[in-house]
Sequence to fold (234 residues):
Amino acid sequence: MFSIILPTYNEAPNIRQLLERLRRLYPQEEMIVVDDNSPDLSWKIAQEVGLQDKNLKVLRRMKGRGLVNSLKEGIGAAREDILVWMDCDFSMPPETISGLVGPLSDSYDMVVGSRYVEGAKDGRDFKIRVFSSLLINGLARLILGTRTKDLTSGFIAVRRKVLDKVGISGVYGEYFIELVAKAEAAGFKIKEIPYSSVSRLGGQTKTAPNFFTFLIISLRYFLTIFRLALSKAV
Fold:
């Protein structure tokens, strides 16, 4: 058994369809929607679905917005030892979750959905984001010396003991670089499986809605890489 954590903000075009597909695929698993009080009422749509689903929790967050804070709250509310999380825009295929969870029974501690291993693809339409992801991942692997290839994935199944040991910190997707790097350094066993990323099904991206925001968020990734490198050198 595992818990699926779904951080949301303005995902009204996607959330009902995603929840219904996840439930068809994983009928007994716990799902937790952690919504940052979306103006488009994503939380209300999830609550409506939850009226018919006893294994769906909806957490409506009124303060401390942000991806990492949402993940922390979802992790704290989850009942299972194995935790899965993903984006809610269909850029990450729900069918891949079974492939993420499966290797954990073979003594792995973390399984990452990867766009950079054999059989995978980054098929997003926004090519500057594809290029920036390649650049950030290449730089992170070079500087940090990690074995994991997709350090900005955000698509993961992980045992709770990993999070208890290394935690998660940050604001946006840069948290994932630190999570994986620290998990590797702590000796946890990590596996990557391929998946094909696509552009979001509906709605608008929250992490980079304009070029200026995109640059600011990209800077966070680079600063995280160099901070981790400095901490290793001390």
Notes: The chain has one domain: 2-233. The radius of gyration is 17 Å. The helical segments are 15-25, 42-50, 67-77, 97-101, 127-144, 160-166, 175-185, 211-233.
